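Weekly sync, protein design subgroup
Attendees: M.S., D.O., the rotation student, P.L. (late)

Item 1: inverse folding check
M.S. brought a backbone from last month's batch and wanted to see whether the design step gives back something sensible before we order anything. D.O. pointed out we never logged the input encoding, so this time it goes straight into the notes. Structure tokens as presented (395 positions):
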């Protein structure tokens, strides 16, 4: 049970500013875990896109909020067909929404956690919504007996769950609090950006990024990317040389990605959010990917929205994709009504998204996105969801 702070004794905290009253807010967080074992996993007949679900679980027998794990043994879609996809699903919820963090891992033959992946923020769950990882672990690596992840052909999944309750507790007292809540731990906060320059060698002539990994100092930071972690953890060429050569990421984008890994910050994100999103997706940096999505969402325009929609689709950026489709449909409705959105619309922009080069290119390369956008528009214009019509004043 969390301890509530109490008014100070005389003489406590004498060096700090003194307030006549204070307030302490406690947000209740429930932590619990769940283990799911799938026997004879290699015999699973589910094809790509087909799903297995665990039994439901909750934080306590009295908790009406029910969860389950959802796994696609052969991936969710074509992009993830070589992987096992794993998600946390909110089955039932008495509230309108709940925010939760989660961590997935596998238990090996020694019952040790391995191949862990965790959410980088508290996600918003509503009933029937799931969050997780499309590319949790490669199937060939999982099925390789030498890796010891399927002892007796049993797959054991372990989920640690932090459930944020919306109710808050407040306490007002006179005097200073005896103790303040501790700051959130952050092992990045003391890292210097110069570390990136010491550890990463960029060769502009060959457009090759060479990552030299220190023996101990930064190994824990690199482990934040499951992809980098796998390279150095297993008997791969990168592990033997203690070095990775990356040829498919622009040097400046690569620098920014490494700066994020070492410091938790990406100061140049706004300048390269599109390319950084692609890199974050490739190297499974979920928190950086979310940051890129937010930056791109805030800069949507008539000219770039089609290209942004394609980018979101290519890299499974679902929130960005939804925002881009919503922007397209909103602009279409506003144009039909003869209105203009002051935030995202001005006289210098094209008056029709369909006239932009990005839209025309999308029709040729990604026609399914055009269909998705029109389906969303049709749904939004159904009577129960339609925009209320206003009478135009007669002049």
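Designed sequence read out in the meeting:
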């Amino acid at each position: 049970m969390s301890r509530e702070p109490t008014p100070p004794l005389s003489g406590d905290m004498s060096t700090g500013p003194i307030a006549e009253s204070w307030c302490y807010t406690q947000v209740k967080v429930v932590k619990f875990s769940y283990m799911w074992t799938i026997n004879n996993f290699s015999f699973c007949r589910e094809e790509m896109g087909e799903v297995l679900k665990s039994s439901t679980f909750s934080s306590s027998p009295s908790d009406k909020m029910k969860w389950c794990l959802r796994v696609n043994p052969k991936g969710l879609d074509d992009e993830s067909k070589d992987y096992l996809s794993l998600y946390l699903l909110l089955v039932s919820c008495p509230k309108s929404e709940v925010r939760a963090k989660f961590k997935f891992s596998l238990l090996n033959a020694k019952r040790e956690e391995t191949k862990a992946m965790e959410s980088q923020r508290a996600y918003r769950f509503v009933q029937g919504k799931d969050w997780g990882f499309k590319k949790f672990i490669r199937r060939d690596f999982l099925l390789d007996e030498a890796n010891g992840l399927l002892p007796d052909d049993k797959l054991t999944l372990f989920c640690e769950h932090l459930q944020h309750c919306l109710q808050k507790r407040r306490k007002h007292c006179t005097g200073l609090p005896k103790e303040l809540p501790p700051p959130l731990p952050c092992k990045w906060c003391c890292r210097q950006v110069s570390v990136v320059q010491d550890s990463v060698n960029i060769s502009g002539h060959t457009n090759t990024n060479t990552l030299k990994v220190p023996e101990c100092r930064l190994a824990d930071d690199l482990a934040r990317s499951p992809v980098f972690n796998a390279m150095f953890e297993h008997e791969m060429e990168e592990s033997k040389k203690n070095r990775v050569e990356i040829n498919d990421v622009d040097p400046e984008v690569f620098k920014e990605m490494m700066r994020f890994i070492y410091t938790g910050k990406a100061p140049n994100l706004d300048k390269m959010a599109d390319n950084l999103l692609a890199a974050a997706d490739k190297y499974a940096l979920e928190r950086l990917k979310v940051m890129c999505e937010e930056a791109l969402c805030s800069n949507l325009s008539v000219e770039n929205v089609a290209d942004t929609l394609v980018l979101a689709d290519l890299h499974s950026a679902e929130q960005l994709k939804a925002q881009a489709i919503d922007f397209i449909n909103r602009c279409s409705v506003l144009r039909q009504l003869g209105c203009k959105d002051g935030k995202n619309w001005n006289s210098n922009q094209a008056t029709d998204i369909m006239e932009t080069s990005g839209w025309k290119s999308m029709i040729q390369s990604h026609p399914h996105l055009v269909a998705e956008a029109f389906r969303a528009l049709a749904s939004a214009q159904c009577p129960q969801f339609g925009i209320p019509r206003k009478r135009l004043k007669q002049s």
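Discussion: The chain has three domains: 26-168, 194-268, 305-380. Residues 155 and 202 are 41 Å apart (CA to CA).
Action: P.L. to compare against the previous round before Friday.
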